[in-house]
Amino acid sequence: MSASLMSARSRRWARLSLVLLWLWTGAVSLWELHGQSADLLHAAGLSQPLSQTLILAGAGLDLLLGAALWRWHAAGLYLAVGGAMLLMTLLGSLLLPELWLHPLGPLSKNLPIAALLLLLFEDAKTNPRP
After folding, report:
1. Considering the entire predicted model, what is its pTM?
2. Could you give the 3-state DSSP secondary structure of residue 97?
């Protein structure tokens, strides 16, 4: 049996941080459906119905990913979460490239998140049961 890449404690904290991130992002997106979320997409030139659809879809995906991360420690899940994050990052980059220069890092934060997902992915392959 190969050694785990992460201790059980590190794995729990890593997963919990991502669970909270995705659940919080989904909840805030819904809370700000007609506020900051809509303002960002309107600034990108999207219509109100399209921006609402995108916000609701993104919030739903965020909540689903957060719940899945809470429940499972599986390599395939980390790949799916990474793919969803990449898709959202590309969409954000195309619609509002200036977000890369935002001081709070709404897009640049995805770089360390990707690294954490990679660590959890590799750990799940060697230690599928947390």
Report:
1. 0.88
2. helix
The pLDDT confidence band at residue 1, using thresholds 50, 70 and 90, is very low
| The two three-digit tokens of residue 8, written as one number | 């059980």
Burial label, 22 (beta-carbon count in 10 A; 0-12, 13-18, 19+): buried
In whole angstroms, what is the distance from residue 92 CA to residue 102 CA?
12
Distance set, CA 106 to CA 25, 76, 88, 97, 124 (Å): 11, 25, 11, 11, 27
**Non-local CB neighbours of 18 within 8 Å, separated by 6+ positions:** 66, 69, 81, 113, 116, 117, 120
How far is the C-alpha of 50 from the C-alpha of 28, rounded, in Å?
18
> What letters, b where the CB count within 10 A reaches 16 and e where it falls short, cover 39-76?
ebbeebebeeeebbebbeebbebbbebbeebeeebbee
